[in-house]
Amino acid sequence: MHSLHYTDSSRVLIPESKKTRILKTSNQEIRKIATSEWLPLVEIETLVVVVVVVVVVVVGVVEAVVVVVVVLMIVAIVVVVVVVVVVVVVVVVVVVVVVVVVIVVVVVVVVVVVVVLAVAVVVVVVVVVEVVVVVVVLVVAIVVVVVVVVVVVLAVAVVEVVVKVVVVVVVLVVAIVVVVVVVVVVVVVVVVVVLVVVVVVTLVGILIVVVLVLVILVALEQRQHNSSSNSSSNSSSSSSSKTAVVVVIVIVVVVVEVVVVVAVVVKTAVVLVVVVVVLLEVVVVELVVIVVVEVV
């Protein structure tokens, strides 16, 4: 610090009055003045150094304490971890041992239960098989008896039904034959009678027409003889025309009679066919009803 330039105003804070006085003094005085002026600064610097040393010591002590605390904490943590690990290992071992014991006990119990159940199942199966055999034998015997009885009953019923059906069929056939014969005979008789009546009526009509035609011709001849005043040509032409008219009338009357006869015959035949069909239907229905009643 004594090697500093004390006149340097940038490094030393000296009042202006003192600066002037220092410049006017000698080097010795400058040294005295400087020594007397800078003594408090040296003390402050020493105090600062002491404070710094104290702070450093305190910091070192604190760091030492912190290191010790950290070491102690690490040791404590290690101890705790070791203790926890030991406890966990012990607990795990105990749990494993307990679990193994429980598993062994459960396995033993299960084996015993399975053996007991197997024995019980075997006994039950044997009993059930015996019961099933007995039941099957009884059921087979009952079924055989029932089948035999049903077959016998059905055979008897079938024989009775067949006999009834045969009898009814024979009766039906005979009745149908009789009815058909009777209906055919009646139809033939009716047709013959109708045809005879129609033929007689037709012949009578034709005779009447012929008689009327003859009467008309005679009348015309008589009239012709009476009218002799007419010329021969006119009389011949009129007589021929009258004869033609009479012939046409006769033909028309005969055709009408024949048509009427045919219509009557067709109508009679249709009516007879309808009657026959209705009778046959009635007979068949009655016979079917009889058969059903007999079978039931």
Automatic annotation (TrEMBL):
Subcellular location(s) of the protein: Membrane
Highest taxon, organism lineage: Eukaryota
GO cellular component, one term: membrane
Main location: membrane
InterPro entries assigned: MetI-like
UniProt topology in membrane: Multi-pass membrane protein
Membrane-crossing residue ranges in chain numbering: 38-59, 65-98, 105-129, 135-158, 165-189, 195-220, 241-264, 270-293
ABC transmembrane type-1 domain span: 78-260
BP-aspect Gene Ontology terms: transmembrane transport
Assigned keywords, A-Z: Membrane, Transmembrane, Transmembrane helix
Classification via PROSITE patterns: ABC_TM1
Name under which the protein is recorded: ABC transmembrane type-1 domain-containing protein
Species this protein is from: Elysia marginata
